[in-house]
Specification:
single chain, 40 residues, mainly alpha, 1 helix, rod-shaped
């Protein structure tokens, strides 16, 4: 069972990291769009 728990925890960590990176990318994109709009 310990191995299954380890895998589950690892997957959860990757999911969290993936979500954080995705959110970061979205925020950067939105900031870039806002910046582009400000210049036009």
């Amino acid at each position: 069972m310990a191995a299954a728990e380890t895998v589950k925890n690892t997957v959860e960590q990757f999911t969290t990291a993936g979500n954080a990176a995705f959110k970061d990318a979205i925020e950067k994109s939105l900031a870039g769009l806002a910046d582009a709009n400000a210049h036009s």
